[in-house]
Design goal:
CATH superfamily: MetI-like
Number of domains: 1
CATH topology: MetI-like fold
Structural class: mainly alpha
Largest sheet: none
Number of strands: 0
CATH architecture: Orthogonal Bundle
CATH class: Mainly Alpha
Length: 255
């Protein structure tokens, strides 16, 4: 038991690891995940629109992208993007590995978000689009102003859940050899573990990941409940009172 505690919960190692993890590591993990989710949202919405096209030649490239990036292990994608592109002479970010890290995680995130947005848009009643077209809106305008915003609202919990996944997958960018000042949580902990042969730094990194993901998980659950209940807490009728039916609020397009 003493050896177990010394290997995973060494107080000296934890004390040395936490300051760097909470400053440099936590900052860069959130930076990579945040930029990746922004890229994923923008590219994911575009891919979702292509997936919903009635034209096969428009739909197929988007379907190929989604199938490839969802089918590949994340570590393979990170290696191909972060190591393969610079080796092939394609260096949009120069020699800065942080840009390739964001690009790799963002490409993976976009593939999953494309399917999330597609399902959310398809869940919007078709009458909304028809009503918008009857008011003189073009198809693209109706999608941008009416359908897509409603579809995004439908998938907010899944969107927040994908952000949690991006936070965890950011650990894979240690393969790219981030420099001092760019290291994320796992890279710092792995370096410390390799130098000391003690896993306490990895435990500390795990605690930092949990510090991020557990509150976000509860936020996702509350957001999902709020959307499903319309923001109302279910209450039973008071004793002796008769429940009053609340008429449905008409859609703006149906007014």
């Amino acid at each position: 038991m003493h050896l177990f505690l010394q290997t995973f919960f060494d107080p000296d190692e934890l004390f040395k690891a936490f300051p760097v993890l909470l400053t440099e590591g936590l900052r860069n993990t959130l930076l990579i995940a945040s930029l990746a989710i922004v890229m994923g949202v923008v590219l994911g919405v575009l891919l979702a629109m292509l997936l919903l096209s009635h034209r096969r030649f428009v739909r197929m490239p988007a379907r190929l992208y989604v199938d490839v990036f969802r089918g590949l292990p994340a570590i393979v994608t990170v290696s191909l993007v972060g190591l393969g592109l610079p080796a092939a002479g394609i260096r949009p970010f120069g020699r800065e590995p942080l840009g390739y890290a964001v690009l790799a995680i963002g490409l993976i995130s976009a593939a999953y978000l494309a399917e999330i947005f597609r399902s959310g848009i398809q869940a919007v009643p078709s009458g909304q689009l028809s009503a918008a077209r009857s008011l003189g809106m073009s198809y693209l305008t109706a999608m941008r102003v009416i359908v897509v915003p409603q579809g995004v609202r439908n998938v907010l919990p899944a969107l927040a859940g994908q952000f949690i996944i991006d936070i965890k997958e950011s650990a894979l960018v240690y393969l790219l050899g981030l420099g001092v000042g760019q290291r994320e949580l796992y890279f710092i902990a792995q370096e410390r573990q390799a130098a000391t042969y003690n896993s306490s730094a990895l435990v500390a990194a795990g605690a930092c990941y949990l510090l991020l993901t557990i509150p976000l998980t509860y936020l996702v659950n509350r957001l999902d409940l709020r959307l499903r209940t319309g923001g109302r807490k279910p209450k039973g009728p008071a004793a002796g009172s008769t429940p009053t039916a609340v008429p449905p609020v008409p859609s703006v397009l149906e007014a």
